Amino acid sequence: MSPTTDKLRPPTPAGLLGRGLNAFSLAGKKYGAEWYIFLAGLLIVCFMIFMTLFPWLFTSFNPSDQNAGPQLAAPAGVHLMGTDNLGRDIWSRMVWGAQTILGVAFAAALMSSFIGIPLGLLSGFVGGPLDRVLSLTMDSIYSFPGLILAIAFAAMLGPGVVNITLAVAVIYIPTYFRLVRGQTISIREELYVEAAQVLGAKRWTILGRYIFPNVIATTVVIFSVNIADAIMTEAALSYIGLGLPAGIPDWGMDLSMGKKFLPSGSWWLITFPGMMIMILALGFTLLGEGLAELLNPKLLEK
Length: 302
Description:
Blueprint: H1 3-8, H2 13-31, H3 33-53, H4 90-126, H5 128-142, H6 146-157, H7 161-170, H8 173-187, H9 191-198, H10 203-239, H11 251-258, H12 268-294
């Protein structure tokens, strides 16, 4: 059989698997430990997202069902993580609670990036009074500890999914602004940007075509790390009672309620919510750290 005929044959599952393993091996040799850090974070994040999208595949219990089992039952049998003081299955609350914490974290990170990135581009490119006013405003917000500022906004806005998302989003706007502004100031001095200005390109064209594509790669890394931080912030707000209403499954709230029963030996009430928060935050942190290294051009020079 000729090589041309072999190329026309549809790929077999074994062939696709072989190509995938070969590409995986080559990526590991090319990037080293950074590739495996990225892959570990990606696997954790993808699993959590899959669990969020299809929670009924992982548990048959309703997270709010108070008749799921006996109260304060230890992990065993059908209740993999035990039950709480109201008889609710903890594993089902972990599964459905992933929707809450991931939804808030993603929405907060998106909201802050949609505000911080355009403001950073304008401030760094236009300069002058606009740059001074925006920089002063963002520095004022950035000077406050993030959790303290989130607590202040959450207390002012009250409980609710939208309100806690806004409270978490506000504290990350200066992060995107400072990063994008600094890079924009540096890129606008490049020769290709000056050439575009000389040729009469409009400001919006220069920002969109020449500056923004060189900034977005770094913001992807910050976006992943900010989600990890937003997960911890949302859990902390729920833990102190400034998060979501009681009817919504939430890991931070379960952690807060479970601490009351720790002296009586019910360790599973706080262990599993805390473990889920840690694993999810770790996944996004590994993903961000891996991306930061993989997108670093100097890594390819090794």
